[in-house]
Automatic annotation (TrEMBL):
Source organism phylogeny: Eukaryota, Metazoa, Ecdysozoa, Nematoda, Chromadorea
Species the sequence originates in: Brugia timori
InterPro entries: AB_hydrolase_fold (IPR029058), ABHD18 (IPR019149)
Protein name: Protein ABHD18
Pfam families reported in the protein's UniProt record: ABHD18 (PF09752)
Amino acid sequence: MEQREFGFANDLMKSNISSILLQNPFYGSRKPRDQFRSSLINVSDLFIMGGALVAECNFLLKWARQQGYWPVGLAGVSMGGHMACLACTNSPEPIALVPCLSWTTASTVFVQGTLSKSVSWDVLTMELLSKQFQDGIREIPGCDWLDRSYEMEKKLNDNSPFSAAKCVVSFPLQFMYVLMEEFTNLCNYPAPKDTRLIKNIIAENDGYVIRAGVPTMQQVWPGTTVEIIKGMGHVEAYLASHTLFRRCIREMLRKNQELYS
């Protein structure tokens, strides 16, 4: 864990709020030996990471409740914020949730946002177009990812939201879009038990998390509140908004206590 994360938790302690800092699978000491820093080797690693985080977060929430801690909640920044959302959908009881600098799907992050430039599209294209890979995908029961990707390519036109993005212009990008929508779109998961306990913080000029053309948080989870950091992009908002993040965490935990005490 980095010093700034401990500093974040230490400040919350002044408000009698304890923190469990969960190290992301595939990050830090948990990353594979041949992985360079946080650059995942396989696209599938992202989905394994998400599944692990959902399970681990809910185990820790259950443990905390058994130890007498209440109210409880989840928070995270960027990808951590989205993972916190996914974990919240699996919580059997109402919990506070503060996703920071994240949105309702990761599809646009990887095909339109700044991170799309770091994807090895040439490698993915070779794999995707191979008969062995496509045969393997088609063997998955009920899986229509390839058909949906081909259909998107076929229907691509000037009136399409995909063409408006000026980014989903090739089959590999469309397949990535379909995968990310399948596994990361919050519409595909159960709604949290009480969306009044959710406060989403976003950066107005976020170039990493693209919000155009996807459902808003209020559309996916009615009752959620959204706070916008004006005039900032993704990185600047992260560096400058820790005080805001902590304030919203305190606010949602207090609201949880007021509603369910």
